Amino acid sequence: MRVENVHIESLGVVLHEWASAADAVAAGKLDAEVQAANGLTGVHIAGDVPAMDMAVEAARTALDRSKIDPEDIGAHVHSAVHYQGPDGSYPPGYILRELGLPTVPALYLRQGCDGMLSALEVAIGKLTGPAEAGAVLLTTGENFSSPDMDRWKGFGQAYILGDGAAAALVSDEPGFAEVRSLHSGVLHELESWHRGDGPLLLRAENGPASGMVERAEQFEQRMPLSETMEKLTLFGLDIIHRALVDADLNASDLAMVIPINMDGRMIEYSIMMPLGLPMTRCGWEFGRSVGHVGGADVFITLEHMVRTGRLTPGDNVVLFSQAPGWLCSAAVLTITERPAWAE
């Protein structure tokens, strides 16, 4: 999807106390061989700070950095992976009320770790379609400090889960980055990889639901992991290539590829090498120390790269995220100016 007149005006990020993977290994929470192989060095842990409150804080930072009048925000999109509040509660309503924003249309997306790029896709429609929203606030927040989640091992060997939040103000007026294109898709052939073989109804006689790792093992009895990885690699590359074509760019034109925070080997062999790019043009070197913060990853790394001057005007960037289902999204941005909040 070619995109015109859509810009990222500001970003906000919240990350709390850092915990090293080496300390987790020493405490017996993480296998030393796994940590050495995946290259992930640590995570941020928020303790008792709720995910939605971190999302509010990230949004306040984005608003403080922005030239947009809050009264001109025409829509809000919140996305999440893990627990946000009691069943039946509505996170966007909480966030809008805490921020004191006008009564605007809001959406709550459950697109997994693809959430923020899915939210960006919705925002593009809000800005360029009949809604003529003018500006859209995107938020997300995660706190994996819960009794039913093991942040070090719960998502398998390729991820360790971090807490944090990100927010973005997307506008039809110029900002620090122009959105050139966005492409997304669902490889439904791999849908049951994360669903497993369990029942689709909650019933006491069915017992507790199986965990993510167990569900993946069930799927591997039908499709070898090597075949699964080949399929998702080819699918992800196709999504990226389509986004590049729509932006009238080649992979060689990219200054940076920003993926979700996962095993460095997966990023190198399934993304960077096929694109013909070195890992020095990947945001992983920063992201490996952040942890996997759901859909926030790509915007956390983008904010860091822009704020510290790693990305400068004229640089082309791909944001790439994936999620169970199997979802993929790729957005191509061009940095157009150095924002006032950059260091």
What does this structure look like?
This protein is globular. The protein is α/β, with parallel strands linked by helices and 343 residues long. The strands form two sheets. The chain has a nine-stranded mixed β-sheet, with helices on both faces. The chain has a two-stranded antiparallel ribbon with strand order 2-3. It has two domains: 7-175, Thiolase/Chalcone synthase (Peroxisomal Thiolase, Chain A, domain 1, 3-Layer(aba) Sandwich), CATH 3.40.47.10; 180-335, 3-Layer(aba) Sandwich (Peroxisomal Thiolase, Chain A, domain 1), CATH 3.40.47. Helix 3 (51-65) packs across helix 4 and helix 8 crosses helix 9. A hairpin with a 3-residue loop joins strand 10 (316-323) and strand 11 (327-335). The chain has helices at 21-26, 32-38, 51-65, 91-99, 115-128, 192-195, 212-220, 225-246, 264-275, 284-287, 297-307, and strands spanning 7-14, 17-20, 42-45, 75-79, 106-109, 135-142, 164-171, 177-186, 254-259, 316-323, 327-335. It has eleven helices and eleven strands.
- CATH topology-level fold name of the largest domain: Peroxisomal Thiolase, Chain A, domain 1
Distance between the termini: 33 Å
Tally of helical segments: 11
Low-confidence stretches: none
Shape: globular
Number of strands: 11
Average pLDDT, all residues: 93
Short overview:
By secondary structure, this protein is α/β, with parallel strands linked by helices. It has helices spanning 21-26, 32-38, 51-65, 91-99, 115-128, 192-195, 212-220, 225-246, 264-275, 284-287, 297-307, and strands at 7-14, 17-20, 42-45, 75-79, 106-109, 135-142, 164-171, 177-186, 254-259, 316-323, 327-335.
